[in-house]
Amino acid sequence: xxxxxxxxxxxxxxxxxxxxxxxxxxxxxxxxxxxxxxxxxxxxxxxxxxxxxxxxxxxxxxxxxxxxxxxxxxxxxxxxxxxxxxxxxxxxxxxxxxxxxxxxxxxxxxxxxxxxxxxxxxxxxxxxxxxxxxxxxxxxxxxxxxxxxxxxxxxxxxxxxxxxxxxxxxxxxxxxxxxxxxxxxxxxxxxxxxxxxxxxxxxxxxxxxxxxxxxx
Length: 216
Fold this sequence. Notes:
CATH architecture of the domain at 69-210: Orthogonal Bundle
Protein name: RNase III domain-containing protein
Order of helices and strands: HHEEHHHHHHHH
Strand order of the largest sheet: 1-2
CATH class of the domain at 69-210: Mainly Alpha
Radius of gyration: 30 Å
Distance between the termini: 100 Å
CATH topology of the domain at 69-210: Ribonuclease iii, N-terminal Endonuclease Domain, Chain A
Mean pLDDT: 76
Domain RNase III: 72-198
Structural class: mainly alpha
Low-confidence stretches: 122-130, 135-143
CATH superfamily of the domain at 69-210: Ribonuclease III domain
Helix content: 55-70%
Largest sheet: 2 strands, antiparallel
């Protein structure tokens, strides 16, 4: 008993003689950038969140398609598109004729078809179109930032393009004009879809497309 007491007393007087086990964190705690994301099986947390978001978008698209037609979305999208173009040209103040000329030019099917081509990454040269002779607009084609469509947004476009079209008189009998009308309608349907489902995403889309507009 005396020996045990002396040993305890010696440890109190000379604490350095006691070997302490120091906890050392894992290497990844020191360099957080080297840590791998937490996984469940073979699926990462980011992957699960992406799948959940995609599932939500699919359900939302299904609900939209059950309530509206592609033509209804394009009808709404036409008005939303026009509003954004009008806002773009609102300043500086100008004559009402110039206001209407700018809106009519950029709301025409031929011009919207060019926006559509740029949106899906097609290399369309503006100078090849008689509807777009503005050198400023031609210059901006090279710096146009492609808008990465989500799966649901691409589905809206494909759904619209698969629908039968009733062409206006000026598009009848003109294959190229009919293709332009189809693209313009698909773009308007996408705008209408985002106006109903995701205003923030709509703002991103319009901000991307409006960089294409020349100043007037």
